[in-house]
Fold this protein.
Amino acid sequence: MKLAAAIRAEFTHAMDPPPRMQGRGTDHRAPFRQWLSQRLLETALARLLSLQYLRAFSAFGVVAFHAQGFTYGRALVIGSAGVDVFFVVSGFVMWTVTAYRPQTPADFLLNRIVRIVPMYWFVTLSFIFAAILFPTLFPRLVLSASHTLASLFFIPMRSPSNHEIWPVVVPGWTLNYETFFYAIFALALFLENTKRLLFVAAAFLALTLVGRFYTGNSPPMIFYTDPIMLEFLAGILLGRMFEQDRLPQLRWGYISLAAGLLLFLVSGRLEIESPRAAVWGIPALLLVAGAVIIEKNRNVPLAPALAVLGDASYSIYLTHTLTISAIAKFKAYFTPASFFVASLVLSGLIGVSAWRLLERPFAEFLKPRSSVQQPHLAE
């Protein structure tokens, strides 16, 4: 049985009451069925190991992007495309999770908040306290109360340090996009699947169209009308095809994967970065689509280390710039190559440690006990 159909069958069976319980008043097995359906969701989506592996590689692509910038003063351009892969994966996972396990908008947003906010706030506030206590370690950082609040609540604002539309912890700029995507997607959950898809597509396309004609200086308007938002939509469309068993055969998965990698390499080699939604977004979609098509048609072997790095990818992403900046204080003791390798290794180790000691306990402690839970594959 095809993977998408198998997941759907598991959920239909799990949520149906046993025959002997139908027609009675109170179903005392409902808590068990709710627990069982949740375990099935986690198990079914956990089959998509390819998404875990992509998240791991994407996180380290971004780490390499910044590590090379510190090492050679010139960033590894292709590494930044890890963000675009994250966005496509996010769109895919949000669609499939809510398609197989319906949620209210409130449940969805609560789960998203529990997933991303505690760790992000911890990293942001730790960075701010360190900057206050040891200002000489952050000579170019300018703190302000308004920018700090905007950062914590995912509001795009120009940084007083460099006037870019960045939060206090720079990698958080992607979370500003993620949370905006979640808000739009939550509104769409009031609708059934087809109308939900049309609503999200219309919203993102309208924002992109507005961005082509907007000439003002409002950071939120500049930020949220960027075509990069279309990468979430691309992931959603892929999720819809997966849900409906409309993905092509295995050979097209390999073709898509190879095409995505080739486009990434060509764009990176030629240092083409704009328009980002096309230069990085299209190969990101091909890469994710290829991985999903392949895993839909055949088993993907488990690589435990990669799976763990995929789980820890959020913490790796959030902490890596702080890790690299700390290593840079001792740059005189490194060769360029050893600094680059040390940045990758320590970013991974610290990120995994932060995931194990902070991110996962935060999520376990704060998760709603009676609400629908998101599987660990959800971005």
The radius of gyration is 21 Å. The CA atoms of residues 35 and 280 lie 39 Å apart. DSSP finds 16 helices and no strands in the chain.
